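HUMAN:
Just now I want nothing more than another pair of eyes on a protein record. I would be glad if you read both lines and explained how they fit together. I have put the entry right below:
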Amino acid sequence: MPTPHNAAQMGDIAKTVLMPGDPLRAKYIAEHYLTDVTCYNTVRNMLGFTGYYKGKRVSVQGSGMGIPSIGIYSHELYTLYGVENIIRIGSAGAIAEDVHIRDIVIGMGACTNSNYAMQYRLPGTFAPIASYGLLEKAVNAAKAAGVSYKVGNVFSSDTFYDDAGSLGDWRKMGVLAVEMESAALYMNAARTGKNALCLLTISDNPFTGEETTAEERQNSFTQMMEIALEIAE
């Protein structure tokens, strides 16, 4: 049934959902890659579409920015709509020195400064990780496409403008990139027994000031989109 955030009915959404932060990126994917497309959600302009890619039924929906937003949408997809796999396809800032603009980072784990895990009342610190089956498929698809990629830890930050300037501290721990959603997605997947993966395209480098435009992030990060579509089940 519909929720306050999603107008879809049961059956409207495929078992695998690609989830960019930007709903216009979801619209771009639906228009450029999917056939027989239907729009199942326009609530809050968090656009959601279902269609077919090479005969596979796939959905794509925006998550919004930050852990609270993707926490809501992914939880509802997993628990109310029968979704089994969510593949986040987002932009990120480079942290590691050998990560460059437009490289693809596959998030094996997600460090975070968020308190999202407090709700589980665990007697320790939970380590959010990707689902290995999806990760392995993404690596193989990236290799087959000849795409420059790296696999490792990402940092899911609650703050875009970080007053503490902490990215250098994460760099020394080998973290590859910073973004704002993956930790919550991985925790929701773990809690519900479902699957999740984060694919990121490097859009900027906070250390050098190098960056892409908003239009480029919306429309040109096609290698990441195509890997996600190829591994959709």
In short: The mean pLDDT is 96. The CA atoms of residues 47 and 188 lie 21 Å apart.
